[in-house]
Design brief:
The protein is an alpha+beta fold. The protein has 18 helices and 23 strands. Helices cover 40% and strands 24% of the residues. The protein is globular and about 90 Å long. The structure holds adenosine-5'-triphosphate.
Length: 511
Amino acid sequence: MAKQEDLFKKVISHAKEYGYIFQSSEIYDGLSAVYDYAQNGVELKKNIRNYWWKAMVQLNENIVGIDAAIFMHPTTWKASGHVDAFSDPLIDNKDSKKRYRADVLIEDYCAKIEKKIDKEVSKAAKRFGDAFNKEEFITTNGRVLGYQKKIDTILKRLGKSLENENLADVKALIEELEIACPLSGSKNWTDVKQFNLMFGTKLGADAASAMDLYLRPETAQGIFVNFANVQKTGRMKIPFGIAQTGKAFRNEIVARQFIFRMREFEQMEMQFFVKPGTQTEWYKKWKEERLKWHLSLGLGADNYRFHDHEKLAHYADAAADIEFKFPFGFKELEGIHSRTDFDLKAHEEHSGKKLRFFDHETNTNYVPYVVETSVGLDRLFLAIFSNSLQTEDLEDGSTRVVLKLPSILAPIKVAVLPLLKKEGLPEIAHRIIDDLKFDFTTTYDEKDAIGRRYRRQDANGTPFCITVDHQTKEDNTVTIRYRDTMLQERIAISDIATIVSKEIAFKKWLR
Ligand code: ATP
């Protein structure tokens, strides 16, 4: 565990030191769970977004993109269910001033009783040895049955109270169970309140006539409300998809783990509209497709796994997460949801406009079903960045820190380094950059010994270093050094672009 925490700390400090991610408004001590992308971070983020966009929009004939506004008509969020259901029950402890999710406090209490059951089971297993039958034990042992009954009663009551929005009873339950603040041990609680995760804002000049708006908590609704516009103007035939990337905002109650859970973040979503009855097939297909896309980045198949949901959201008939092994364990990276016709139907009802597809073959129209793929760009950034940051032991006994970003995503593709700061070498280096910069991001570095400059580029994630030396003046050749293998080769200046292009070609990565 300590090792994992150390690794995560390293990731965070490396991201700052090498100009990838800064805390937002750091000079004012920062803003919690809000981050800025720095000079290298913005390039990496843009490249990841582009890699997703090309795979979705450019490589699929039946998927088009849009860029909807962050502000949307407030009825959107009524229709989508976010006004009523996108909230968590909150409770504050008056002494510690700490805020908790009331349902989580109660669930944690039940988890403790569950541990007692586990203890009884392992005690009995020891006592009975080989003759032990767990199933029989937990269904007949008086003490275990008592514990289980207690858990069931508590959770049933909690579920009912939440469903009926009886928050007073949720508080009563916390008091009856004598649940204390995990931090202070105090049982001095406030009332339970529903806390909607949407950020509210206002549109309009004067307070009286201003309209209440929300910052969108997901990008998906911008796609649904544009379904008919895109379908008609793009003459799209079912099945087809609409892709979008953009900011989303959630007032997360507990936000930590760096850019894993932010209050302002970016999503990359694709809503795929299908004929009712075919959704399961498409859901399976998109699960496979999305995993394949992730694997194309070469971060290692062992780092991904599916987590199929048993408890489904109100709009879904199937859902799964692609989880990634972050420095703090396997966690959700992307969600794939079979959203049924819930959203389009709800928008039809609230807007009075038809959101249907007319099938010329059968002469009927229907509300399409939707399969959604939704990945957090920032979370993906964290997955790629943390997986790429490696410390290697070298043959000469030294170590190097290297950021092995997939070369196609690296912020700077080529560093050009004159061996010396004089004798015409810097001029040649600049001329090389002047030529390469139209196609690749480049950087120039003449400070320190060449070995140190290589290390700096390794830590920065730059896949190619080009070194200009005296021989360059004679025969127009340079040394190319590859970040991952540290291999060095003598090549003609005129071959640099070809070599780099080949390595970072979309076709090579996305094939
Ligand atoms: P979680 O369970 O982690 O809160 P979620 O199930 O609410 O996530 P979705 O609503 O399915 O997430 O959003 C799709 C994707 O958006 C997630 O898989 C994740 O990558 C990203 N995402 C969601 N919330 C955040 C956040 N607060 N910060 C960064 N990324 C987020």
